[in-house]
Design goal:
Number of domains: 1
Distance between the termini: 66 Å
Order of helices and strands: HHEEHEEHHH
Radius of gyration: 20 Å
Largest sheet: 2 strands, antiparallel
CATH superfamily: Winged helix-like DNA-binding domain superfamily/Winged helix DNA-binding domain
CATH topology: Arc Repressor Mutant, subunit A
Number of helices: 6
Structural class: mainly alpha
Length: about 170
């Protein structure tokens, strides 16, 4: 006999979602003090542990595809967290070592206090779920923006910034 799956409106699920949402909020607040986001933190951690290869997806608690990883690498380098070797491989900038240790200590303290009742795999799964939900909402917002532009003028089109820049460079060339 298989156990019945939980419905989204059941108290256990609602309590889990509430607890994880609160934990995620505390984590994001803790990271924001250092100027980081959760995906940036995961990428920095993977780089520090030698688990990241440029040009390949980064499979951490949340999946970071190549374009997202590259965008995060640029942002982290701009913020002084990363340097790049001659071959283009990212490495933690010497000046960022102390900041990285402080961020790691703050996150460790947060884990021990607020997420002690969840196992590592449970936290990773629930955090991944929240990030997928956030990505879905962001995607929905982008689609809504495109649809709103189309409603104003059927010939209008919303083009992502990266594609717009490439198109402008191509036209200029």
């Amino acid at each position: 006999m298989q156990p019945k799956s939980l419905e989204i409106h059941e108290p256990v699920v609602l309590a889990l979602i509430g607890a994880v949402t609160a934990w995620q909020g505390a984590l994001e607040q803790t990271l924001s003090v250092s100027g980081l986001t959760y995906p940036k933190w995961l990428l920095l951690r993977a780089i520090r542990h030698g688990e990241f290869t440029r040009g390949r997806p980064c499979e951490t608690a949340i999946f970071l595809d190549v374009p997202q990883s590259e965008r995060l690498l640029r942002e982290l380098a701009d913020d002084g967290w990363l340097d790049f070797a001659v071959d283009g491989a990212p490495c933690i900038a010497p000046a960022a070592g102390t900041r990285l240790k402080r961020a790691a200590q703050a996150i460790k303290a947060l884990h021990s206090v607020s997420a002690g009742q969840f196992g590592t795999s449970e936290r990773a799964a629930l955090s991944g779920l929240l990030h997928r939900m956030t990505a879905t909402l962001q995607d929905h917002t982008a689609r809504h923006s495109r649809h709103a532009a189309w409603e104003q003028n059927e010939l209008s089109m919303v083009v992502p910034d990266e594609i717009r820049r490439v198109a402008q460079q191509a036209i200029a060339a």
